[in-house]
Batch of 4 targets.
Target 1
Amino acid sequence: MIWDTEQESKVIIDEFVLELTCYACPEQYDIFVQGVQVGYARLRGGHCSVTVPDVGGIVVYTHDFMDDGWKGCFANQEERMLHLTAACNEIRKRRLA
């Protein structure tokens, strides 16, 4: 994992580049591999979802934050990386299937 601290707008997880597209609620990312969009991640209303290949696509990862129905941003970097890494793993499985 690499966090682009210069721009504070990119996360790199293995072959995936996640570009932060909204700095407020909801926290959301476009996900790329070699410059091609392969996914979209969004956290809003206590629900994290990831679709492929873009918004409105097939849902490959979800998580509900039962303790915070208004959650729109990850609480910290550890929580962010936990869910974004899991999401990238699900995208990878789908791409290899």
Target 2
Amino acid sequence: MTNSGEERLHELRSRLDTIAEELADLGRAKLVEALESGSGAPEAEERRLSRARRAVLKAASLLGPDEGLYTEDEAWG
């Protein structure tokens, strides 16, 4: 693969990693919000966000290894 192609893959992996982090942050925020309001944990929404995060991590892992990104085990977990 050319250097340009490798750079594009690196950029895509980095963007997917950022999206996964944002999904994790959103899931945590939703849990805290539910606990603070006394409505209990929003299990369905948290599961949905967790599944989306794992799918994004899996996509990143399929593009190849890169420093700073999650491992393939985390993507499948």
Target 3
Amino acid sequence: MSLTPNEMAAILPFAIPAVAACIVPLAALDKDTATQKWIRAAIFCIALLALCSSFLFTARLWAEGAQPSYGYLAFDRLGQFAAIFVLVSAAYAVLQLWDHLHQEGWAKGEILSLLLFSAVGMMLFASTTNLILLFLALELFSIPLYALTAAVRLRQKALEGGAKYFLTGAVASSCFLMGIVLLYGLTGTLDIDLIASEIAKGPLDPLAMVGFALLLFGLIFKISAVPFHQWTPDAYEAAPHPIAGFMSVATKGVAIVALIRVFTAPFAQNAGLGGRMQASMAIVAVLTLALGNLCALSQTNYKRMMAYSSISHAGYLLLGFVTGTSEAFQAILFYLCAYLLMNLGAFGALSAFGLVGDKTEIRNFRGLGWKRPGVGIALTICFLSLAGIPPTAGFFAKYLLFKELIVQGHVELAIFGVLASLVSVGYYLKPIVAMYMEPMPNEIQEQRACNAPMAGATILVSGLLIILLGLVPNSVLKGIARPSIKEGLAYSAETVPHP
């Protein structure tokens, strides 16, 4: 079977990292300690080369305005945004893993292979409206993450966190699959656009509501929203630091994009379904914001605090679905861009400071801001942005969401979001206070600063881009977010009914 240039262009961004994921594990076959260092460098170069190649090809498609497709795979503007988002997140993780694995003392080829397979699955997940392909992509990126969470087998917490993530993930996948079964049984099709058309022809069937609710449950789990958030603190604490950062950003991002893609057509064509779903989103968003921020306040472990922070940011993102307008979806994509920089910078600080293993308590940051001042300043910028302090990207991201809520008449939700942001300042200041205002332990003073150039570089880049994005937000908002929504969706989000 021969492929047309259009079909080849749709497949190639996925094929490149997939082929690299198959090549990288071959490095594990080499048992010669004399060549181990060179083999290790080679597999990292292969992974980075694959991610960069896929990124450059996707960026070229974006610049040319091309939106290729192959069967049920639609690599449109929205799919290209998601692909770039995932590829950048994966590249961050690979760079940080270079330092982290040297510090932890376990470097295996399968780690990078699983990461690449997960990235491919995420890209597929955000580039289709066929429910079966959506489910297969969900499993393709979820199963490697289960294994990566428990990658450090010598740590009891790793095995525990991996098992919890796997079991709860299996339940969420089952809910998602049952929703697919119900919708297919009602409509006889697996394409979400055709499902929306069939449901819109008559009165709203209660089974259709159940089917969409089950799909929503599966996606909410990946976003780490209440009530499917319980796995998040244990999984993040168990996973290697760069993997936890990748999970917190990429998984949430593609689930949000899939949520936009899957539910836009049903919302637009069925006022009853749209109204009920958006009301549900408002409840879930409020509960997620409240629980995430309040639980984060009481944490003393850095990674668990970041896990509850991730839960709270899922609440902010879900607020955009309450209005369901084109502007709200654009604000969500802008928020994701800012969140990528903020969270990957915050998780990368652990590797940059050399805090591996169980050294993840907030007290372990005491005095480190003076030990590595560049990393300390960049990490401070990340936390200020997460809290929504101007002039950072996080401030403008929240401003866009709250502004759209007020314009559409949801003033009370905007006020609640602002109050939640004020609460978040309390726990985001904890690591900053530890870095600069608490005395450094004597044993740390006598040690040399940790040599982690790759992890340190990623945090410095994040800090710089956060400031630039906050000062010139239109470069991303109008140049990336707006085309992704306007050109990437078959149905205009502005026609979505409000509850």
Target 4
Amino acid sequence: MAESLSRARSDVKASQRYNGVMAQSKRATVYFEPSLHKALRIKAAHTDHSLSELVNEAVRRTLAEDAEDLATFERRAKEPALSLEEVLKDMKRRGKL
């Protein structure tokens, strides 16, 4: 009895979260490899998150990493370019190769 009550409360919370997120979301069709889909479903069940929430978070992290990379490229744009040949010569000279 207690387990079914707990599950019902969890379902209500998940439904409320889902409805709140979905009201503001855009729909897209994504095709996953079967093993990735299975892993996502398992992770969603274990973390009490929807597949959409997991995918959204992964995309946010990836875009944040891209933004960091672009910012780094921009900061380093004025650094002198080194050829591979120069780097290898320097490494040999210093005994690193």
